Batch of 3 targets.
Target 1
Amino acid sequence: MVMKPIQTLPGSEKQMDHKPIVDDITHQPAGKLKNKIALITGGDSGIGKSVAILFAKEGAKVVINYLNEHEDAQSTKTLIEKYGGEALLIPGDISNETFCRQLVEKTVKHFGRIDILVNNAGTQHQTQSLEDITTENLIHTFQVNVFAMIWITQSALPHMPKGSAIINTTSVTAYQGNALLLDYSATKGAIVAFTRSLSASLINKEIRVNGVAPGPIWTPLATATNDKEGNKHHGENTPLQRAGEPVEVAPSYLFLASKDASYMTGQVLHPNGGSIING
């Protein structure tokens, strides 16, 4: 049986009863990303939104890609501008190779280069069994989660100077698996392997490549995929017995994007509520 999401994927923050916490109003900026240019896919809501806000607070100019959640994206842009930052919104479907390359071209045309690439956007479809996975959803999940990451990175690399950083969003499911997210988990495992391999490939270019593997986080995508009962218990199986908020994940991206992580490449950080994954 294919499970029907409660929202049209990838979900909208506007339609959530409990809005995710994406902004740490107590954060004291230290200029860690001053004058950097950051391209973030899936930056309109959830983890991507929190990362975009935090990067902007730290001095980065941010390009936010999203599918079609214009209201979510505009609210993110407005908040960034409230803090004195600059954000460029570029909507479009990253499952399309041509658009992925256009996304990079538009970013470079506007800002001249890319210092930080955050491959964050993703999609998922819950099913009760392997037999229930449709070929259409299988292909689309890999296109959004893996192919787009490769297409965008391919296009971005010629415009990334020495010292740049690439951060890929994987998931705890890459390490633990998930019986209801078989194809999604497979894509997240592929992202771990891609991150490690790309980090070795780019050593001579002096570009660091790392990943973040969030656990159950309160995001539009996660809650849109679950039913109401599933959302009620989202994250209860972690040692901290709750779902995380995007604002609790964003600092991992800031660390990896900044000089603080200058001796880290090919690694994955695990803001997952205390789950031990040994990976």
Target 2
Amino acid sequence: MRFLIAESETPEARSERRDSVGRSSGETYLAVLNRLAPDARCDRIMPADADAALPSDMALAGYDAVFLTGAPLHLYDETPETRRAIAFMRALFAAGTPSFGSCAGLQVATVAAGGSVRPNVRGREAAFARRIVPTEAGRAHPLLEGRPAAYDAPSIHTDEVERLPEGATLLAGNAVTLVQAAEIRFERGTFWGVQYHPEIGLDEVAGALRRQADGLIEAGLAHSEHDVEDYAQRIEALHREPGRRDLAWPLGLDAQVTDEHLRLAELRNFIAHRVAPTHALRR
């Protein structure tokens, strides 16, 4: 199989993420996909970069799947970066290649297909999205296979999907963010996406909190940088020893977050149910 990872972080955001956790969002996806599909060939591009050499529709059609990473893009702002990211997603829909995205990946696909994104109206969702509940359609959808009636997931975002495009299917939501998972069909393409981050480990959650400490304090989620650092350190301790219930319990977390196999459910399901059957037909 051939995978393409579309990393829409700006160069500045990419550098900040590497400084805090040692890898960019695309490099995180690359490591995860190498574990889930070790025989797959993975390429990586940066659609939002000004000097990005983007593949044509025909070249995109040569991939078995495209994965869109998270990124600090505000899709309601008209900037060169958002225009390039949306143009890439529209080319991907036109190519018909199966695609998956998390966080900003879901938002890019939403806007490219005619929906809208806005700042979170119920405040930040930081560190973890709590009590995500599949809709009736979501309970029957292969993207959420194996997920329980309610679950938590790594998540940190300041924007959310305001309106899904016509023809999209809402698959899950929670009290903070209405659209936590969705399927979007547009032109020749089908996109499966989530607002949360199944691909990131707890060390990356801690890094994200540290990078956004000022915003968390401004939002009233923490009183001081010391509070943010204390929370980040407790999350990191659980990352080092994920089997320790005494570390998980104070954070209110269970195996849906601490067990990597369970946490990666959506990515594994996408490859098994959406990508592998199409790849078999193309051989």
Target 3
Amino acid sequence: MSAETEQTLPPQTQDRQPGRETEMNPKPDFEPRYPGSGRMRGKVALITGGDSGIGRAIAVLFAREGADIAIVYLDENQDARETKRLVESEGSACIIIPGDIGDAAFARRAVEQTLAAFGRIDTLINNAAEQHPQHEIADITPDQLERTFRTNIFGLFFTTQAALPHLGRGSTIINTTSVTAYRGSPDLLDYSATKGAIVAFTRSLAKKLADQGIRVNGVAPGPIWTPLIPSTFPAEKVAKFGADTPLKRPGQPNEVASCFLFLACEDSSYMTGSVLHPNGGDPTES
């Protein structure tokens, strides 16, 4: 980072959402930082938004720890194929399932395809999301509001509803919320609202499923370098992304994926209804 300009990244944008990891400069760091120890051996993880960014880092880390992976994504086919290759290079099996989780019928099909391939689901990662900044609340159209809630909240509900009958004692659900749920974001009103709803959903579902032995937790990342960033913000904002955190930089996906692994495995066996905060030191109320 340049001390004079607070620049953390090269200025860049992408002209459509979802963004493509193949077009980012520099590429996000997704590689696990340590050898696997079998913490997910014999498990199956279904990851929405698993083609790139945080989802890719989770998929590769879980694979290194022994899990087979089902990746759900919208239409980023090149990124998804690369993540599949990376998972398989760790010695695990992987299927990729394109489609819109905001469609309840597709969410059911994604779960059915996972079961057909692997026979079980042990961990559900609800990670897919979209965001569309607007300076004024009046500029948030009904269509944008519907899209944001349909992906971020409806899709999470639909996927959870479809997967839940196939989860057993010891299974885990982990939902990706955001630092914006805690500190707010004046230009991401609808997105922040969905992420706050995810916190409430996580805590409520955790209480609902505790008697069944299914743990439900969340992760609230701060500014993480993923395809969502250059596909959302103008180049000048991307260039200073993460500079306003105490650590003065954006986080990398592999700095977040370890939170998901902790919550998915027995290391966190006495945690449910909790949220972890990999956010570069941004103060929040947890």
